[in-house]
Amino acid sequence: MILALKPGIIYGPVNSRRLGRSLGVNLSPSGYKLCSFNCVYCHYGWTRRLSLSFDTFRDDLPTRLEVEAAVEEALKPGLEFDYITFSGNGEPTLHPDFPKLVDDVVALRKLYRPKVKLGLLSNSTGLIHKSVRDVIPKMDFPMFKLDAGTEATYLAINRPAPGIGFNDIVDSLASLSNIIIQTVLIDGDPCNVAEAELDAYFDLLTRIKPREVHIYSIDRPVPKTEISLVSPERLEAIAEKGRKKTGIPIIAFYPR
């Protein structure tokens, strides 16, 4: 069954394979999926509103004051968590107030929970905006999607909204430092684990120079049934090949 959308701004804490106990912050609408991608593997199903500009949907987005109040309440004593993570039902960095929201949460964290870290799960499309790129260094764990080594595979897997060029995303990622790349690997139709595709992907990683790369496959129901998971053994083999080719730490995640 496709997962239900998050009903509000704050959710969790959830147990994350990478972040420990993570308190999620959802900057997207709760009634429908708004995103700049329509990924074939998304566990929230197909994107009902596909757009690179969220200004048109501002009335459906949580306001800056609403987010600030919700995060402040969650940071008060009672809940235990290791990370505050911008994620949710769609792409958080496309919220029109995202840079200001980051500053708000950084200030609240300093006031209430200075040891809690700040994370981001992003599909990378918001990086076309300089204001978004400028706040990324304030994140302890900024994770950005890169699911393809070529434009054709990017279009087939991520199915982006008009106006989002693959090369623009790669250029934006390469302009940042100390980031983490996360990649969903899938087999079937479409597929991003063919040898030529992986070689192109490793070449992009060498250019982007992330501090580490996380690869994993699907482990929940997906909207496109023609795709299939990549086995843990194959994930480990791909990670090993990538480490040798790029010199970058590449970690395979899968249910243990």
Describe it:
This protein has 256 residues and is an alpha/beta fold. It has a single domain, classed as Aldolase class I (TIM Barrel), CATH 3.20.20.70. Helix content is 31%, strand content 21%. It has helices at residues 64-75, 98-112, 130-135, 151-158, 166-174, 195-208, 232-246, and strands at 10-16, 20-26, 34-35, 49-50, 83-87, 117-122, 141-145, 180-184, 186-188, 212-216, 227-229, 250-252. The protein has an 8-stranded mixed β-sheet with strand order 1-2-5-6-7-8-10-12. The longest helix has 15 residues, at 98-112. It is globular and about 50 Å long. The model has no long low-confidence stretch (mean pLDDT 96).
Tell me about the largest β-sheet. Answer: 8 strands, mixed
Strand content: 15-25%
Number of domains: 1
- What global shape is seen? globular
Task: Please identify, by name, the CATH architecture.
Answer: Alpha-Beta Barrel
Number of helices: 7
> How far is the N terminus from the C terminus?
22 Å
